[in-house]
Task: inverse folding
């Protein structure tokens, strides 16, 4: 047997926050050393942060990263083998690289061969892909370092790399590494969270360990690194097609290390027994960096698949949503140096979900870290130190206000008051009807006629939403808190939101989730809730309602679905158009087959309405406050779904639908 202890770290990094990033790296290395880890994999770009965007074009970012690697990180690795991700400059090109440090020395650099350039990733904008099977030499500070498509022989154990996207493609570098006799593959990643993505990661980690006959070590970022993307951690170690151990996901800790003892000799034997394995016999010498290293003698032990206790839950999407939003909100709060959150609480599903998510984030953080640790994390917030309970902390961090007009009803006001009380928020009731009347009279006097619902419906609806913005902004400014907008993805798709009204805010946390899913989550929170947490029965007052903007007079019976279409139909059309790239005619065919309970004329009307509203309202989506990326069906034009602000509006395609009817 050849037993070694290996580890994978997850880090909560921040772009260009050099001191914070170094502290997390140092903490992870120290924990790994204390656990007896010999080989430790840190995440991709962990020195600079992954989400530096166009700052990756700035030479000082590369210089600072190099200096930190050389002066600060290198001395921490005595007696260990540690991979560290950083941006690297070579021959007037910028590269996404992983440095391998051995016993306090920089041994060499492996550069990423396949860049992530789809979805929320724009790596080709900043980096060059390193060509396969090319080795170069980096000259820095009077020394030479091997660079490129290389692997390492460290004390007789061979180590290679697949950097994040390298493992997601068909021509994985791991295949060549296997033929070269590599024993351990390190995968430093910055893999953003989306629903169900964990299974894909597990697939390539476990299959990579089996197909390549290696120990496979996967590390990842953790938390809300730079604003939109959420990283769930989830370190993994696999060997010979078996998942040896996994780390927890969605932790509030700044770093975490998952470790396991693996038998290198066993993976070698498993690979040798594989008939299809064809080792390289014509061995080249320039792509392998060799250095002696004494691995400590350790005894065998049973490794336990830790993971997260809730991951076997049948409500896995609800759990993931709850925990992803929790770390995203609290990280955003801390990294923006805000003193809490403010929500304009209408008593409807969206704003109630946002308020509930804030309270749940506090509950989950305290459950994991303890009340004192959470207070210490947010020690910069005045008055928080006096909080003696989770409820006290929520009251200090979350302010809600119900803003009534003459069109508001007792049902929604009661719902807002009930939800705020149930979660423990500070609650205000504001009557803004006089402001609405003032604006209405102001414009009526200017144009010389009265504004009526018959002639000015949209105008009169919008002014109510806009009149609520200044007062809620005032509360946010007074308390130095972050105003949370409450629009969801279904509304964003068709522009069913008032700009500078319900879209007002510095962050729009639920803009990445559709209305149907949000309502399902609220029902789940009412009756079940996340593992280890209590449900919130008070949400029944929200879940019993039919969604309504409540902007027209009560006698008009306004509902969201009456203005638009049933939300399941809207979400289906949106997915067929945005995710599957269907034309209006194709979307109509799919809607017909799926929603047979509606007549054809009604479905045609809804399809036409969706496409017209989509094209008309791209400018609104461009102006939404930043939102969290929750799945790969996002509408955010800055990270996922680009669409022209001005377009032909699908006039020809929609006209063809009318001709078909004729």
Result:
């Amino acid at each position: 047997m050849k037993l070694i202890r290996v580890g994978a770290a997850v880090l909560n990094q921040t772009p260009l926050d050099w001191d914070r990033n170094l502290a997390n790296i140092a903490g992870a290395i120290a924990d790994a050393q204390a656990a007896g880890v010999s080989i430790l994999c840190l995440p991709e770009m962990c020195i600079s942060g992954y989400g530096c965007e166009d700052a990756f074009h700035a030479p000082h970012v590369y210089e600072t990263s190099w200096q930190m690697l050389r002066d600060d990180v290198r001395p921490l690795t005595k007696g260990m083998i540690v991979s560290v991700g950083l941006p690297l400059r070579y021959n007037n090109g910028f590269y996404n690289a992983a440095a391998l440090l051995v016993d306090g020395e920089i041994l060499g650099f492996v550069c990423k061969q396949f860049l992530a350039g789809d979805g929320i990733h724009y790596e080709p904008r900043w980096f060059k892909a390193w060509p396969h099977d090319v080795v170069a030499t980096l000259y820095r500070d009077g020394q030479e370092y091997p660079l490129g498509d290389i692997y390492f022989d460290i004390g007789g154990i061979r180590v290679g790399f697949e950097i994040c996207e390298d493992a997601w493609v068909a021509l994985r570098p791991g295949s060549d590494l296997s033929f070269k006799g590599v024993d351990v593959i390190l995968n430093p990643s910055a893999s953003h969270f989306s629903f169900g993505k964990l299974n894909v990661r597990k697939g390539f980690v476990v299959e990579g360990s089996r197909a390549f006959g290696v120990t496979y070590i996967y590390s990842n970022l953790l938390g809300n690194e730079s604003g939109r993307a959420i990283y769930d951690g989830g370190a993994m170690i696999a060997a010979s097609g078996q998942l040896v151990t996994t780390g927890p996901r969605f932790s509030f800790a700044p770093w975490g290390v998952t470790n396991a003892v693996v038998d290198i000799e066993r993976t070698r034997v498993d690979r040798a027994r594989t008939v299809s394995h064809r080792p390289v016999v014509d061995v080249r010498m320039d792509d392998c960096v060799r250095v002696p290293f004494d691995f400590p003698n350790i005894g065998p032990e049973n490794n336990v698949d830790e993971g997260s206790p809730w991951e076997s839950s049948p409500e896995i999407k609800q759990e993931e949503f709850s925990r992803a939003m929790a770390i995203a909100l609290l990280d955003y709060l801390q990294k923006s140096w805000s003193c809490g959150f403010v929500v304009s609480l209408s008593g409807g599903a969206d704003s109630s979900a946002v308020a509930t998510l804030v309270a749940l984030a506090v509950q989950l953080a305290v459950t994991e870290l303890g009340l004192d640790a959470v207070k210490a994390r947010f020690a910069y917030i005045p008055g928080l130190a006096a909080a003696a309970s989770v409820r006290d902390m929520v009251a200090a961090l979350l302010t809600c206000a119900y803003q009534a007009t003459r069109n508001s009803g007792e049902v929604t006001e009661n719902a807002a008051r009930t939800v705020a009380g149930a979660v423990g928020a500070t609650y205000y009731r504001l009557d803004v009807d006089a402001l609405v009347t003032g604006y209405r009279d102001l414009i009526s006097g200017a144009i010389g006629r009265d504004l009526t619902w018959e002639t000015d419906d949209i105008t009169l609806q919008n002014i109510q939403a806009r009149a609520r913005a200044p007062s809620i902004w005032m509360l946010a400014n007074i308390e130095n808190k972050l105003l949370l907008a409450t629009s969801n993805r279904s509304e964003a798709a068709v522009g069913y939101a008032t700009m500078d009204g319900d879209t007002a805010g510095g962050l729009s946390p639920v803009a990445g989730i559709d209305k149907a899913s949000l309502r399902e989550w609220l029902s789940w929170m009412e009756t079940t809730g996340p593992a280890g947490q209590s449900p919130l029965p008070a949400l029944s007052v929200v879940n019993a309602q039919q969604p309504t903007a409540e902007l027209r007079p009560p006698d008009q019976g306004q509902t969201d679905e009456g203005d638009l279409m049933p939300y399941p139909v809207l979400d289906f059309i949106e997915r067929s158009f945005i995710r599957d790239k269907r034309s209006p005619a194709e979307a109509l065919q799919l809607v017909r087959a799926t929603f047979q309970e509606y007549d054809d004329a009604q479905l045609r009307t809804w399809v036409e309405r969706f496409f017209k509203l989509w094209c008309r309202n791209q400018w609104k989506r461009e102006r939404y406050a930043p939102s969290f990326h929750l799945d790969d069906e996002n509408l955010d034009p800055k990270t996922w779904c680009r669409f022209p602000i001005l377009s032909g509006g699908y006039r020809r395609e929609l006209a063809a639908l009318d001709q078909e009817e004729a």
Notes: Residues 345 and 452 are 27 Å apart (CA to CA). The radius of gyration is 28 Å. The mean pLDDT is 94. The first helix runs from residue 18 to 34.
